[in-house]
Give the backbone structure.
Amino acid sequence: MTQQTALEKARSAYQPKLPDSLRATSLAEKSPMPASSDAQIRDLFPHTFDLPEVIFIKGAARIEAKPIRAGVILSGGPAPGGHNVIAGLFDAIKSINPESSLFGFANGPDGLISNKGMELDAATIARYRNTGGFDIIGSGRTKLESQEDFLKAMDTVKARNLTALVVIGGDDSNSNACKLAEFAREQGSPLCVVGVPKTIDGDLRGDNIETSFGFDTASKVYSDLIGNIQRDAISARKYWHFIKLMGRSASHIALECALQTHPNITLISEEVAERGLTLKQIVDQIADVVSHRASQGEKFGTVLIPEGLIEFVPEMGALMSELNEVLAEHGEAFNALESLSTKREFVTGHLSSTSATLYRSLPDDIANQLILDRDPHGNVQVARIDTQRLLIDLVESRLKEMKAAGTYKASFSPQPHYFGYEGRCAVPSNFDADYTYTLGYTAALLLRENLTGYICSVRHLTRPAAQWRAGGIPMARMMNMERRHGKIVPVIKKALVELDGPAFKELEKNRDAWAKNTQFAFPGSIQYFGPSEVCDRPTITLELESAAK
């Protein structure tokens, strides 16, 4: 570790808040999950589907338990608070039985397969409390999917004499944790597998998971940056800022940042898909707002663009789906080609006529980005597509047409931005520091009860932490069937923005005023010390959703 800054020293002394119910006396209260007619998922997960919901309640006496020998994995992209999950897990298993121990697998699931990692002791944990990043043991994107992967994982479990495994990850990582839990039970293994919901994207959520950790911090980091840009915009009064925000498929981050900063235009991917908006219609909408503001003497503004927008535009989504299928089926022949131009011509020849026409119309750099390396599931990596630059080019072209028609007379000076990695490893907000520590503690109690196949659930998050309700729900209940690599497989369903939800409705209520007028908000940087209403406040999305219940 490098020398600590003053903030790091102060944060290392911060003691995360815990629900009153999460102590050594906690009792596991079980209740049946709602009836499900999903026979296909039940058949795939016969050992872990029909499990009860678990809530921990405050007991009267300390519960004696055997030592827990747990392994922990950080999987996928970093999210603020990951270190505190591990700290909470470590503290809890030690409180359950001082002889408990924790082994950290190196660089994600690959460490489990290759049996590489390190024992985590109190001194190591102390250096990482309340810090950002996943650097305590590293993360990775190796997937546990095949029978061979699961067998190697079980070999490592036996070699390390583990009784439990905690997987800290997003929807894909927890999907694989769910499959491993089921596999272990099929093999007659006593291994207990528990998942923790992580992703700044905010798309791992549901009735029992109010938010994934890291979303709070990342949204606040991006909102601070957007606010700074907007302050510059009203100072310089001549730039339009097109800001793409990380979030993969879901638009939760863009929506939350919009609620915090009041930009002129916020594109929501799920709305684009629902309304069937074409790329031209989106461009026309932006150009109309630019033109209206210019007519009022305001030749500046901000546009928020969710990372996954491009795949939600119907004609672009169809094109990308076809490209995924072409590259899955003809990958070997495609990879043998040397130049990008020949690769573009190769895939064009395998597209439908409509998609081929669209693909040829795209700028070469965007067309190239659409055929770059796929993600582990064979899909386009939308983070690599410069959607903000594509929209700038198209809006510029539209404004030139409007100038030629005499309906637009101002200049247009656009600036592209992409905020992604700036937020993934930030020092966690008080909310995320508390939430992640609670998740780690909850995971340990699920292990104590030998409740395998569960994902940690902490609810009532807009209340003081002492009143949070912690427990777990069966991961299999979150699964659905999706197409991956040309095959239909079970995975946890991504939670997208709900257009009838309170957060989107709040945006919808204000978007016309924010478009026409300059009503920017400047949330400022995350505050760690001071009044609770400033330092511990959750996201606006969470507040609106809680108020609507």
The first helix runs from residue 6 to 12. The chain has a mean pLDDT of 94.
